[in-house]
Amino acid sequence: MIKKTIAVLLLTLALTGFASAEEMSVNVNTATAEQLAEALTGIGEAKAEAIIEYREEHGPFQHPDELVNVRGIGLATLDRNRDLILVEEPTRD
């Protein structure tokens, strides 16, 4: 009985964690520095600001892999966050 209860709890935690990760995805073309730093692992305020500066200078990101062009962001950081990164075009009002 205890093993089944523990298994159910672990499964619930795993599923809850998966749902939370999906909810924390972030569009790197529209997010603020605060939103980027909060949603992405290994991205603090300075790197988040660098992402914004890069997109302002070069235009919207077309693919998550382009983030490695931002100073201070390497392949390891990109790979850790790949499932959280959205690159949707910003809407124009």
UniProtKB/TrEMBL annotation:
What GO terms fall under cellular component here?
type II protein secretion system complex
Organism domain of life: Bacteria
Which N-terminal stretch is annotated as signal sequence? 1-21
Matching entries from Pfam families are given as:
HHH_3
According to the UniProt entry, its GO molecular function terms are:
DNA binding
Query: Which UniProt keyword terms apply here?
Result: DNA-binding, Signal
**Record GO biological process:** protein secretion by the type II secretion system
Gene3D superfamilies, A to Z: AF1531-like domain (1.10.150.280)
Q: Does the keyword Signal apply?
A: yes
Q: Which NCBIfam families match?
A: competence protein ComEA helix-hairpin-helix repeat region
Put simply, this protein is called ComEA family DNA-binding protein
